[in-house]
Q: What sequence folds into this?
């Protein structure tokens, strides 16, 4: 469990970040702070594993707070709307840098830099976040037949229907490789175990639809299916 302190002077932005963090597995927000001084006190009191903090705050800024922390310091993730501060943040030892508006994918990447490599959540745990009005649905890879690009984001083909997933196809290709997914077209990844048939016109038949295989990918797909 990663214990986190959030330091952000804007109440709505702070609550949004806390809500996103608490949706993710293996995290616990142990304290919130509205400025740098409160942040220092919360960090001293709770000794968190990680601190997510804004840079532009009244009084003590995020970068000033970073230099005031005694060793050993918690992992620091800066969250801000100002990309020009990135170099200073990394020079000071930040493990990650998130630009507002914050995405679930970005948060997951930040947590991946914080978790030890032998953490089971780092090794084998993977979920695809689906945005819903009532919260975030976390899809297991085995629930997904295919992931198809749609205007920069990705859409998961599932038994529940077509579900929008945070992140691009390129982002998910690397993460899903060890879960049996293969790129079959520049716009599509398919889970091999979901394939029922490769048709005569080079389409993959899945439980909920069909996807064309590009000529460039056809030989690799046939090999993966044991057909070549």
A:
């Amino acid at each position: 469990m990663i214990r986190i302190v959030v330091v952000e002077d804007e109440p709505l932005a702070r609550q949004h970040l806390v809500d996103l963090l608490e949706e993710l597995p293996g995290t616990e927000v142990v304290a919130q702070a509205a400025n740098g001084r409160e942040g220092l006190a919360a960090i001293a009191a709770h000794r968190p594993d990680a601190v997510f903090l804004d840079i532009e705050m009244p009084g003590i800024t995020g970068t000033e707070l970073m230099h005031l922390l005694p060793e050993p310091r918690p992992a620091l993730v800066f969250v801000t709307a100002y990309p020009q501060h990135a170099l200073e943040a990394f020079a000071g030892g930040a493990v990650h840098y998130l630009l507002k508006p914050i995405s679930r994918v970005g948060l997951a990447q930040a947590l991946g830099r914080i978790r030890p490599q032998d953490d089971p959540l780092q090794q084998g745990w993977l979920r695809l976040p689906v945005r819903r009005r009532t919260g975030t649905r976390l899809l297991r890879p085995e629930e997904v037949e295919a992931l198809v690009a749609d205007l920069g984001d990705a859409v998961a083909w599932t038994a529940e229907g077509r579900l929008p997933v945070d992140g691009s196809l390129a982002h998910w290709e690397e993460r899903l490789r060890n879960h049996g997914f293969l790129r079959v077209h520049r716009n599509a990844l398919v889970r091999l175990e979901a394939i029922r048939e490769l048709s005569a016109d080079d389409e993959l038949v899945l439980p909920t639809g069909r996807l064309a295989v590009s000529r460039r990918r056809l030989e690799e797909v046939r090999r993966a299916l044991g057909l070549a």
Summary: Residues 221 and 227 are 9 Å apart (CA to CA). The first strand starts at residue 2 and ends at 7. The chain has two domains: 2-123, 143-224. The first helix runs from residue 11 to 23.
